[in-house]
Write a structure and sequence with these properties.
The N and C termini lie far apart (57 Å). By secondary structure, this protein is an alpha+beta fold. Strand 2 and strand 3 (38-39) form a beta hairpin. The protein has a domain at 10-48. It is elongated and about 55 Å long. The protein has one helix at 41-48; strands spanning 10-16, 26-32, 38-39. A three-stranded antiparallel sheet has the order 1-2-3.
């Protein structure tokens, strides 16, 4: 597989996530040997979701 970012070679790799709240510690994914891009099923699913614009916060006036 080719990297979607730089078209470099992607290789399978096993990653460790100690902060995951699903209870899984290890997960399989792909890592680009050129730019370091990481893809796994969660990343791919999140990138397929449409981006919803956030409301901009109003800035408070600065003290003079």
């Amino acid at each position: 597989m080719r990297c979607p970012r730089c078209k470099g070679l992607m290789v399978r790799e096993r990653f460790q996530d100690i902060g995951d709240d699903t209870g899984q510690i290890y997960f399989e994914g792909l890592r680009c040997l050129v730019c370091g891009e990481i893809l796994d099923p969660v990343i791919v699913a999140n990138r397929k979701q449409p981006v919803t614009p956030r409301r901009r916060r109003r800035l408070l006036p600065t003290a003079a």
